[in-house]
Amino acid sequence: MSITELIEGAKQVYDVGGVGCCLHIVLDDGNLNDGDVDFCIRRAEDHGHETCKKFAVRLRAESLEVREQLYERYDEYYTGTESLIQKLWRSK
Q1: How far apart are CA 84 and CA 29, in angstroms?
Q2: How far apart are the C-alpha atoms of 41 and 46, rounded to whole Å?
Q3: Which residues, 6 or more positions from 77, have their beta carbon under 8 angstroms from its beta carbon?
Q4: Can you give the pTM of this predicted structure?
């Protein structure tokens, strides 16, 4: 899946619930490991958020490198105030 498609998917998650909804720890905080995405899948299932679950499953199939590329383009899927964690990520 292309980064552009992943950005569009992330935007759909924000439409379900602001601040990354069930994928908050991944999309907003940059916790990008497989276990982090697995947690988001379970959370989406628990909350009945099909859009979040579908995107989390798609994201889980991507490599860590691709997830990092998505996170680096945070400003393309979230337009609110940049988090402290995001500022630290950008300063690496």
Answers
A1: 9
A2: 9
A3: 7, 10, 11, 14, 27, 70
A4: 0.82
